[in-house]
């Protein structure tokens, strides 16, 4: 990029990345939401996704740890509490574990992440390291997949409740809460990026940051599709549906 985009032009470019690359277009999600998976395959998805959910407060803590702007720390810290919980609020990670509990997975096994796919673990740690190492505006921009999350959450709630008799309304609370949390978080991050990406180089970097994050989400579904759907090659040590832990 050699031209400085206006804030609105930058937002348009960011939204175009989501329209083209967000993981709602992955065939695994079509299978998941359309009721085309068996219970073991849904278990594998929920177990692997726990790795990502548990990493979210770690990446947010990494961002805060290098932030010298007190107000940004004050504004960002609620994200950690939203996932880890605080006081009587159980938090998103606990709500995710209610889902894996409801799917019949052993909670200790889920939280150990021993059964997660290697690609899942590599992708998740790559995201944490990205936020730790890149510029602050890139780190914030990598969270902007939240702009596109409500749509997929709505599809997931309706599709899974309609198509799976082993899914109940109680275990879908994580997604229902994110319908209100994600838009607020995305609006804040988008405003920050539009105000702070002020050079062509910085704007190119934030666009690449969002592309990177969409790749992090996409590759996790690639791994699930390959291991549990087609051709169904589960790596050694990974979760096996119907085994002792599922």
Count the domains. Answer: 1
What is the CATH topology assignment?
A: Heme Oxygenase, Chain A
Largest sheet: none
Net shape: globular
The total count of strands amounts to 0
The CATH architecture comes to Up-down Bundle
DSSP summary: helix tally? 12
Q: Write the CATH homologous superfamily.
A: Heme oxygenase-like
Percent of residues in helices comes to 55-70%
Q: Please state the average pLDDT score.
A: 96
- SSE succession: HHHHHHHHHHHH
What fraction of residues sit in β-strands?
under 5%
Overall structural class, as computed from helix and strand content, comes to mainly alpha
- CA distance, first residue to last residue: 49 Å
Spans of at least 5 consecutive residues with low confidence: none
The top-level CATH class is Mainly Alpha
Rg for CA atoms = 18 Å
Descriptive overview:
The protein is an all-alpha fold. The protein has a single domain (42-228), classed as Heme Oxygenase, Chain A (Up-down Bundle). It has twelve helices and no strands. The protein has helices at 7-21, 27-33, 39-65, 70-76, 78-84, 92-102, 107-112, 118-133, 136-141, 149-163, 173-196, 200-228.
Q: Could you give a short description of this structure?
A:
By secondary structure, this protein is mainly alpha-helical.
